[in-house]
Amino acid sequence: MRASPGSGMYGVKLRSEGPILQDATPDTLTNFCNGIGDLNPLYRDVQHGRYSRWGSQIGHPCFPYAFGCRVVPVGACRACTAFTP
Description:
By secondary structure, the chain is mainly α.
C-alpha cells in the first residue's frame, strides 16, 4: 500500500511565526474584509469612509490579528472570537 502524497508533510510548519501583514493600506484593509466576508462599507470603501463621521476608511476590529497582535480585547470582534488567543 502506497503512502499518500502529503504524508511526508506531517509536522511541517506552513506559516512563519512573524506577522502576516506589514502595512495597513486601503488595499490590505479591503482585502482583509473580503477574506473574512465582512461587507460593511466603512471597513471596505475609501469613499464611504471619507463621508462618515471618521472622515476616512477605518480598520476592521479584527485587523490587528493579521499583524500577529495578541492584545486585542476578547470580544472586541464578534466575527473573530473563534481566533481569540
